[in-house]
Amino acid sequence: MTRVKVLSDFDGVWTNQGPEAAHVLEHFVARAAALTHVEPPAAQEQFQAWLKLLRQEPQQHGWAPDGKDPGRLTAFLDEDPLLCSSSLGRFLSLPSAPKAARAYRDAILAAGFANTMEFTNRCFLEATEAFSRGTVSPVVPRAKAAFQALVEAGAEVVIVSNSSSEKISRLLAPLGLPLVESASESGKMLRVCL
């Protein structure tokens, strides 16, 4: 019998994004503030004001992972709470960004980042890794039951994520699911096999 493959992201599908997204945004703003020598509370206030502005047109802001094409978005701002920092990072790079935003962009570039999205992605990885090592697991309570139901229905679950395989394995290990890591031309994949 041919098994159906279910391709799944990890963050936001198998994790509770709210607290993690807040942590990612806080980390992103703190790092940006440090580069521009702006006090963190003032930076938080400024970035929150910009985020409020961006949320008025969510289809114009979101995740542009490589930062090379400012007109291309992979996901819109209102589709995922983890996209707040990504949307803000992209906003900093826009030619129409206000002077204060350009100051952050210039500081990010002066710090050696190729573009604001490289900085944003680095902040995302640092923050999600730190969050995943916290005292409360971000994995949703029914994750094990959901994995088991999919496998019992004949599916092979393949996790495709920009999160590291190590992070995903560490977070899913307490569930007792047999995880198989496999390499492909595009990188590592995790499979949940029961």
Structure characterization notes:
There is one protein chain. Strands 1-4-6-5 form a 4-stranded mixed sheet, covered by helices on one side. It contains 7 helices and 6 strands; from the N terminus they run βααββααααβαββ. The chain has helices at 17-36, 40-55, 83-93, 99-110, 116-132, 143-152, 165-172; strands spanning 4-8, 62-63, 75-76, 155-159, 179-184, 187-192. The model has no long low-confidence stretch (mean pLDDT 86). By secondary structure, it is of the alpha+beta class. Strand 5 (179-184) and strand 6 (187-192) form a beta hairpin. Helix content is 48%, strand content 13%.
Give me the secondary-structure topology.
Elements: E1 4-8, H1 17-36, H2 40-55, E2 62-63, E3 75-76, H3 83-93, H4 99-110, H5 116-132, H6 143-152, E4 155-159, H7 165-172, E5 179-184, E6 187-192
Parallel strand pairs: 1-4
Antiparallel strand pairs: 2-3, 4-6, 5-6
